[in-house]
Every structure is written in C-alpha cells, then in structure tokens.
Amino acid sequence: MTLSGLSEAAAAVPAVIKLVARLAGDSRVDLRARLVLAGAVGYIVLPFDIVPDWVPGLGRLDDVVVSALAMKILLDGAGEEIVREHWDGSDRALHAFQEIIEWLATIVPGKLRRLVAKAAQS
Q1: Selection from 60, 66, 79 nearest residue 113 by Cα
Q2: What's the rounded Cα separation, in Å, for the pair 81 and 40?
Q3: CA angle 64-69-72, nearest 5°?
Q4: Torsions phi, psi of 18, nearest 5?
Q5: Rounded distance, CA 16 to CA 70, Å?
Q6: Which DSSP symbol is given to 71?
Q7: pTM (global) more than 0.85
Q8: What is the H or E stretch that residue 14 is in?
Q9: What is the DSSP letter of 5?
Q10: Do residues 68 and 108 lie in contact, with contact meaning Cβ atoms separated by under 8 Å?
C-alpha cells in the first residue's frame, strides 16, 4: 500500500459509507455477513470495549479490528459483483479500500479470525 493508495482510500470515505449502507440493505448479501456488520456497529457504538478507549495507543485498536473483520466478512459475503454494483468511487479507491481491509484483517490473531469467520458461515 503506497501513500497515494492511502490518500485515495481516505478520499473514498463517503463512497465506503454508502457501500456499507447499501450492502447492509441488499438481500442478496449473506444474512450472516449483515448480522456480523450489525454486531460490529453495536460494539463500536456501545461505551463498553475489550480495551477501554482511554488506553493510549490501544484504546481504539479493538474498534479498528472489529471494523476490519466485519468489513472483510461483509465484502466476502457480498461478492465482487454486488460490491462493484453498489460502489460509487473509482476502481483505484475500491482496490485501495479492499487492500486496507485485507491488511487490517491480517493483524487479528489467527484463532480469533477463524472463530469469527466460522461463526459467520454457520
């Protein structure tokens, strides 16, 4: 991921928000993936976190990890065709966004990643 890729992804934030909202409302997207998204939103909005937000450097990390996992599961549950159908940004921005989500998902411990993925599939 280059600096220009990061800036492209940052500029696409409005398109990402629209994409998430559209995928959440699309009945073709796997219901479990949409439920994982709803759970992630609930976790992020609620004031109780695994790592309290006031812990310097780590306080928001759990929110980032939960968001990344939920986005990865949502994008995988939608499939490339449906994602592209709902995407308003450039192809470069979508690619940068997907790369960031993939990278963030890799920082999640493997056991937790497998557990969440399994729960989303069952």
Answers
A1: 66
A2: 24
A3: 120
A4: -60, -45
A5: 13
A6: H
A7: no
A8: helix 13-25
A9: H
A10: yes
Token digits for 3?
A: 């600096």
Residue 106, pLDDT > 90, answer no
Burial class (CB in 10 A: 0-12, 13-18, 19+), 22: middle
State which residues form the domain around 84: 3-121
In 51-97, DSSP assigns E strands to none
d(CA 13, CA 2): 17
Name 100's Cβ contacts closer than 8 Å, sequence gap at least 6: 1, 6, 9
Side chain identity at residue 42, one-letter code: G
- Give dist(CA 28, CA 11) in Å, integer: 28
Q: How far apart are CA 64 and CA 80, in angstroms?
A: 23
> b/e map of 97-117 (b: 16 or more CB within 10 Å)?
bbebbeebbeebeeeebeebb
**Can you give the length of the chain in residues?**
122
Residues 43-70 have pLDDT tens digits of 888 877 777 777 777 777 888 888 888 9
Number of domains composing the chain: 1
